[in-house]
Amino acid sequence: MKAAILVGGKGSRLGGARKADLPFAGAALLDVVRAQLAATGIFDEIFTVGSGGDVEDAQGFVGPAAGVVAACGYASSGWLFVCACDMPFVSPALVKGLLEAVGEEKGVLPHWRAGYEPLFVWLKAELEEPLKKALRQNAMRLAPAMLACGFAVAEEPILRRYDPQLLSFFNINTESDLEEAQRIAQEKGVKTLALP
Known about the structure:
The chain has 7 helices and 9 strands. The two termini are 22 Å apart. It is of the alpha/beta class and 196 residues long. The chain has a single domain (2-192), classed as Alpha-Beta Complex (Spore Coat Polysaccharide Biosynthesis Protein SpsA, Chain A), CATH 3.90.550.10.
């Protein structure tokens, strides 16, 4: 199985800094996310998608949709997990729990009080073409496109079983988000987030 980390965000609300390179918990933010995914022990490859990544964004698509489509194209077949590089508290337990929850569906899309989380999903890489079509029909919006492709929805009670505080969905968009994430990291213990 493969995991894709989307690194295409411009960080315009962070002074133009590349989010993947932000210092966090003693490492670059991207390395922290990669370490959390590696801690699951289920991925044979973890790759990055976006400007400066292992795989470039798909042409003809915009924003995160371009990254998800490109990740499917690169993985080509089998189960693929996709998340963003600005999510420093990825829970290995939630990643594995969502895979168990997917069953026979084509993918699984988390949903909680803040809405859908289309940048923390499992999907079959073979969905590249149906996903492209659904994105075009849904104004490039990922969650509606994923639902149109037949994704199962993992609701909040299931999500909290694996990540009680749902910190996996915390993402860094602003300086205040970064400060809050650093505060949370200190409370959790920086060692739990640093690279082994």
